[in-house]
């Protein structure tokens, strides 16, 4: 379990320092005490306490002056003022400057403990609310739908892993299979009764230097734009889960730093020297063959073994075709309700047959996008073959295009928008979601591709 937190004491009374330090350490807090005020503001911010107990009357300065300087910093800080003045004037001034509370001397030690505990509980509650806002609010976006043996076996494994409370998990599977849903189920299984952080980052979406500072954080002055200390995602996910999406895109140098965190459970910020303990479950996902990447020298063998202790594979949709009717009805009902459309009778038998026969290279994400588009664009009680994208409606025409290398306009016509979407999807799949390479394959600029990806909902 994580300890109560870090408490910084500033008071020139040695007896008070000794009494508070002993009592708070007994409660499980890490305590640092200072009686001298030289460079005290820098000392406080470099140590990053959870709570600061600050005496109002000090030999060389006042607590109010120190508080004023502290509040100029961008890093949030919880400050409790200690004062021998029982008038309201000092307390009001301190609270206006940003103090969280104040205690009047002589104080009862139990009162100090209660005030600190209440402040920490309030801070943690605020953090939890912030994390909740980042989570999906609808069960629709959290459900793993399916009755096939493959998906039932996966769900059973996921629940066992979550119940065990393991520290690292690797989730493999093609793009669009639902690896994030599996990660979220692990998170909910580990923390069923309390709100805990679930933070995710796409390793393919950030340059190496930015990914490093995002993961590990940085200290003020570590580089030109580092104007204040910043917690990394590993620290932010403390006592919760961090999802590293597409970890196969991470460069070897950064892999070695991640491995050290997984083994030692400590983080060192960029530009910092202190090692910060973290209790975080790291869930990594990839659509790559990591063992093949190890053979190529692109992925560290030791990190691969560390992640693969608990490995979960999400099957492709074409490997669980018996789930397609259930999934299509599930998506149809959701989007019909969301967009207030009258899709009452569902699919014609021919549509059901074509949906099941199609190979779904984009997996569940592609199926979901297809159903959402049909519901939005069509005003009908039954989905008919002509409502389907060309690659599903007439796979033979798609085969002719692939064989000839030249698109042949079918007699029945085509949706140019659907063709454009399909080509973008193919380019992303061929390049393993590398948007720069995909843009080159399509002969467009990177910005144009980004716009099209957003337009067609292929993020």
Keywords:
single chain, alpha/beta, five-stranded parallel sheet
Explain this structure to me?
By secondary structure, this protein is an alpha/beta fold. The chain starts with a strand and ends with a helix. α1 (14-26) links the parallel β1 (5-10) and β2. The chain has a 5-stranded parallel beta sheet with strand order 2-1-3-4-5, sandwiched between helices. The protein is built from 20 helices and 16 strands. It is elongated, with a radius of gyration of 28 Å. It has helices at 14-26, 40-47, 63-70, 88-97, 109-134, 149-164, 179-190, 208-216, 233-236, 252-264, 290-295, 301-307, 324-338, 349-357, 363-377, 390-393, 395-404, 416-430, 435-442, 446-455, and strands spanning 5-10, 29-34, 51-55, 78-83, 101-104, 168-172, 198-202, 217-218, 230-231, 240-245, 266-268, 275-277, 280-286, 311-313, 346-347, 382-383.
């Amino acid at each position: 379990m994580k300890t109560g937190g870090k408490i910084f004491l500033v008071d020139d009374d040695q007896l008070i320092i000794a009494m508070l330090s002993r009592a708070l350490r007994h409660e499980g807090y890490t305590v640092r005490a200072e009686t001298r005020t030289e460079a005290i503001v820098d000392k406080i911010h470099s140590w990053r306490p959870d709570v600061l107990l600050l005496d109002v009357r000090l030999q060389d300065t006042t607590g109010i002056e120190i508080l004023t300087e502290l509040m100029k910093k961008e890093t949030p800080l919880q400050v409790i003022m200690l004062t021998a003045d029982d008038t309201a004037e000092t307390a009001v001034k301190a609270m206006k400057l940003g103090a969280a509370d104040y205690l009047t001397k002589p104080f009862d030690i139990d009162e100090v403990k209660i005030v600190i505990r209440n402040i920490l509980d309030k801070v943690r509650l605020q953090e939890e609310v912030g994390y909740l806002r980042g989570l999906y609010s609808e069960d629709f976006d959290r459900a793993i739908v399916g009755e096939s043996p493959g998906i039932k076996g996966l769900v059973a494994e996921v629940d066992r892993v979550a119940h065990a409370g393991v520290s690292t998990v690797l989730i493999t599977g093609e793009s669009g299979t639902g690896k994030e849903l599996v990660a979220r189920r692990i998170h909910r299984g580990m923390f069923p009764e309390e709100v805990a952080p679930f933070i995710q980052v796409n390793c393919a979406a950030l340059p190496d230097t930015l990914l490093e500072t995002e993961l590990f954080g940085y200290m003020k002055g570590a580089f030109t734009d580092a104007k204040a200390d910043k917690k990394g995602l590993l620290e932010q996910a403390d006592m919760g889960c961090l999802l590293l999406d597409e970890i196969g895109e991470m460069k070897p140098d950064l892999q070695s730093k991640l491995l050290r965190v997984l083994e030692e459970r400590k983080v060192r910020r960029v530009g910092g020297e202190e090692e910060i303990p973290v209790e975080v479950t790291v869930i990594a996902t990839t659509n790559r063959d990591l063992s093949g990447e190890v053979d190529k020298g692109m992925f560290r063998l030791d990190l691969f073994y560390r992640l693969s202790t608990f490995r979960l594979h999400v099957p492709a949709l074409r490997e669980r075709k018996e789930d397609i009717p259930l999934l299509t009805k599930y998506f149809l009902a959701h989007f019909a309700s969301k967009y207030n459309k009258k899709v009452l009778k569902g699919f014609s038998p021919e549509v059901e047959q074509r949906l099941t026969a199609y190979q779904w290279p984009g997996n569940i994400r592609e199926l979901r996008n297809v159903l959402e588009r049909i519901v939005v664009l069509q005003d009908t009680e039954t989905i008919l073959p002509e409502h389907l994208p060309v690659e599903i409606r007439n796979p033979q025409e798609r085969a002719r295009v692939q064989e000839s290398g030249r698109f042949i306009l079918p007699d029945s016509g085509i949706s140019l928008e659907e063709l454009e979407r399909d080509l973008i999807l193919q380019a992303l799949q061929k390049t393993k979601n590398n948007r720069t390479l995909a843009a080159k394959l399509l002969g467009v600029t990177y910005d144009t591709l980004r716009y099209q990806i957003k337009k067609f909902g292929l993020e």
